[in-house]
Structures are given as C-alpha cells and as structure tokens.
Specification:
With 505 residues, this protein is α/β, with parallel strands linked by helices. 31% of the residues lie in helices and 22% in strands. The strands form three sheets. Strands 6-5-4-7-8-9 form a six-stranded mixed sheet, sandwiched between helices.
Length: 505
Amino acid sequence: MERYRIRRLRVALLAVTAASGLLLTGCSGTGDGGSNASDKSGSGLAPAPRGEQHTTPGDSREVAPSPDYLSTFALDVDTASYGYARRTLADGRLPDPSTVRPEEFVNSFRQDYDRPEGNGFTVTVDGARTSEDDWSLVRVGLATRGAGDADDRPPAALTFVIDISGSMGEPGRLDLAKDSLDTMTDQLRDDDSVAIVTFSDEAERVLPMTRLDGHRDEVHDAIDGLEPTDSTNLGAGVETGYETAEDGLRDGATNRVVLISDALANTGDTDSETILERIASERREHGITLFGVGVGSDYGDELMEELADKGDGHTAYVSDEEGARKVFVEQLPQNIDLTARDAKAQVAFDPKTVQEFRLIGYDDRKVADDDFRDDSVDGGEVGPGHTVTALYAVRTKEGADGHLATASVRWLDPGTRDPHEESGQLETDALDSSVHRASTRFQVTTLAAYFADTLRSTDGDRTSLPGCPSLSELNEQARDLARNTEDEDVSQLADAIGEAQRLRD
C-alpha cells in the first residue's frame, strides 16, 4: 500500500507541473492514422486540449513540449488495420494512409512478456537505441493471463449480427463467415448460447438466443440458410442485434455482439453518430461488448473501428480461410472472457533524463492525463491471452543517466469493478543496445511500427519515426527475422513489406 501511495504521489506531482494535457499524436505530417472526430471516453466530456507543440530545427517530429512528461491512453487490442493492409497489398494496391494505425500493426504479433496468474496485467518496459543521435524506441508491454482451458471461463451469450447485403456475395465474404461460424459452433460449450441477426435493407432476427446443449443443429441450419440479398442497412442490424442480445441477456455470462460486415452502410440510418449512440447506451446499461469482424476488399474501416471503440470491444479483419479460422475458431472462443474493464495506461517520463518523446499510434485512444484514475472515464476491455504494446520515440538529454520512465496500467476487475494498478520502471542503461541487436520480439515490434510508419507517408519518403529504414532495408530485415523466428506471422509481414516495396518502386 505504501508503494502505491508513493507511486501515486509521483504521478500527481508530474501532473501538476504538466502543461494542459497534451495528447500525443502517432506519425506527424502525413496521415492521421484513423478517426479522431469523437470523444472516446464515453463520459460526455470534451477531448483533452492539445498543448503547444514545438519541433527541433530541421525536424518534423511532433513531440511533447516541456514540461508535459505524461502520456495517457486507453488500451486497445484491435488488429484490423494490419489485416486490411495485408489484404490491400495482396490485391496490388497501397493502403490508404488514413487506415494505417501503427498500434494495430504492432499488436498483431506475439510477444514474450511475463503473464500474471490472475486477472489484471504485468508491465514490461524496455528499449533500444536507434541510428539517430539521442533517439531511442521504448516499448511498454502489458500482458494478461493466458487464455487457459475453455472449461474455466464463464458461459457466453453471443449475438452474431451478419451482413447479408449484395456485396457480401463476393467470394471471401459471407461464404467465409458461414464456414467459420459452423466450425466455431461445434467448438463452443453446451452451456454457451448463440443468437443470429441478419441485415441487408432491413434487419431480421433469424435465431433468438439459443442454448447450444441439444440445439446445435438449429444453429447450423440458421447459418446454412444465410444468403446475400440487397443493400446494407447497418444501423438496423446493430439496433436489432443489441435488442436481441438484451432479450437474451444472461447473468454471470459474457454477453457479446459479434458484428460481421464490410461496414459499408448505404441504406437507412448511415450516420455513424446515431448508430454509435445506440451502442453506447446498451453497453453502459447492460455491459454488452462488441467484437467487430471486417471482411471484403472494400471495407468501412473507420466506421467499424468507431463501433468497436464505442461498444467496449475490438476489431479484427479476415480475408482468407486461415485468417477466419484464427479469429473465429481460435481467438473468439478462447477470449470470450474479460480480465480487465476500462483499462488505461499512463507513462511518466523523467524530465531529468528525457528531452522529448511521442507515442507511436493510439491516435484515437487518447485520455486526458488527469483522467487516468477517474474510473468513470472509459478505457479498454481486454481478455485473457492478450498483450498490448505501446512504442515511444524518446530523445534523451545529453549525458542522461538514471531513471527514464515509469509505466502504469489501471483497470477495473470485470466482476467486482474494484480498481487495480501495476507499474514498471525503465532506467537509461536499458538503452545501451541498438534496435537491430535487441531481443527478437523487440525487433519484430519495431519492424511492424516502422512498416506502418512508412505506409502512412503518402510520398514514399522516410517519415519522422527516428531511424526508420527504407522499404528495401525493412524487407531484408523482415526476411532475416522470419528465418530466425520460424514464425509464420513474421513471414507474412515480410511478404507484405515486399509487396509494398514493389508497389513503391
């Protein structure tokens, strides 16, 4: 308890000296990395004001101005941006820079952080030098407990809201979803429940909330009967889906809406704010979370991300059978449970050793520094088996020696709603190694971040992330890492970098 009071005092003192709560951007200059049009807090509060920014001579980096040495954001485990970028590159096109979110690239890869035994997080902080003088990359890693045995989790009440509009008839959309749902249904437990809602020009409740024990054939029949029809009334689908989830609400269960769509709303209520209002209301009142699964070469990335953020959930994107199996058959059944609600992270950099810094990504997950311990302010929902990684570009002061940063995570227990915190420390001597000689997983993290940073540059030039290699250098490093790790995910990253290089050349 004494340790907690000391840590809280330190952060409070830093907050008093901070400027007016600058919320750091991802990449500067070229592309905003996602929508930041609405307040993600869910509390009705206006976004925190932006403090004055400055740049060093000849440098385009957006950094935190002295004396603001705090960075606060809501946790996010989305990966859709990376999946959609891979699909776009495979189709022979560079992704729109506005759809590239570096944190979703980074969080798409396995990490080797220690995990806690119970609910909550471990905190790992490390770093390495870049090729630019005084600039380092600092990694803040948060990990939940392992997914464990499916029999140990609470039962699930899943409402699948499935887009059956005409565009879903293209190969790799509805057919992929149907096959995956059939397989997943066989892997869920007897005490789990499933409901199915479809939408095209109108929404229809195809299957009410149904306990799987003795009724799996009914679920399979409902899935097999799905056929593409007309236009996309996403608003009606979301509204009917949440009504169905509310009608089938189960105490002591994980109640979740799973939206499967290309998110291209063109009929009915297409205003995102109205759709989002419905999600926010149901989430707050009933604790129903949303999992958005994007499909299709034409995909409403921004809308799907906003829906998941407002619905206390996350997004993934699938483009092929392998990706669909990973999402529906492995991830969703294992991670139905929640280990943390309203989770937020805050990193306090030491002004004695740090000249400037910026958070890479999390552009639309910013939280005012003073709201870190305000548990009424919305954070992120995280389940077992997840890791969350935040990467910072940090410029140290000349001759810096000693404490560099304290990273803290705060969350609410999903059952009791009691708040908890955990922290990790980083000293300057942890930056002795270079980025290219760091641990394998650190190298994978930085490679994914550098790749995202490059894709957000519309002119193909190097961006502001310090030490960012050229695409040809990234391609070579990715191939080496793929051979060393024998990790299929890293091999796919190398393929994507290779495609980007060919399109840029």
